[in-house]
What does this fold into?
Amino acid sequence: MKNALVRAALIVLALCVGAWLAVGYRDARLQEKGQAAVADLRDGQIAPATARDALTALDDARLLSIDPGPKLDEGNLRLFLGQRARAVALAHQVTADEPDNANGWFLAYLAERGPAKQAALQRLKVLDPWAGDVLAGR
It folds into this structure.
């Protein structure tokens, strides 16, 4: 009886780990799709349908993930697409969740305007002095 319970517990554990790995793999593939759209935008325009697919993929990549990567990629994509307000909101989410995330502050610096842009630059200087100096023009 005891051996059967141990086996059952191990099977349940293995199934949970397998499901977690499958979701992580799916999320990584979806994030790659979004990153490809950002790379394509750097080279020129992309079709609106491609942008929508990439945004959907990045949103789906957040499933059961604490990784800020999909939010950062979506923020960059939205910034390239001219959706500044949504990019700012994503930057705020990342920096609120992870105040020491230099990439989140860099997105905030790119997306913000006025005093908020300067505040993001100051925080970025603290987290990454080299990047802060480059952005400040030193």
Residues 35 and 73 are 6 Å apart (CA to CA). The chain has seven helices and no strands. Residues 1-67 form one domain.
